[in-house]
Amino acid sequence: MALTETKVIDSITVTENGTVLYREATRILKDGEQIAQTYHRTSLTPAQDLTGLPSNVVAIATAAWTPEVVAAYEAQIAENALA
Description:
This protein is 31% helix and 42% strand. By secondary structure, it is of the alpha+beta class.
């Protein structure tokens, strides 16, 4: 009986304001067959530091966070702070 644990990013979504949401699934396998699974969700805001994040998440965030998206996000944050 061999138990192994694998982690995989199984979902990446970009919201309208540029926030990147991703889900990491941790799968427990017994003799190659999945017996359990848990999830951990994370959100990243435009221009957030991407150091140490999975490469597929970095690639999506880099593509999504154009200068226009970052500027619009920062303007939205500033506007909300004044309200």
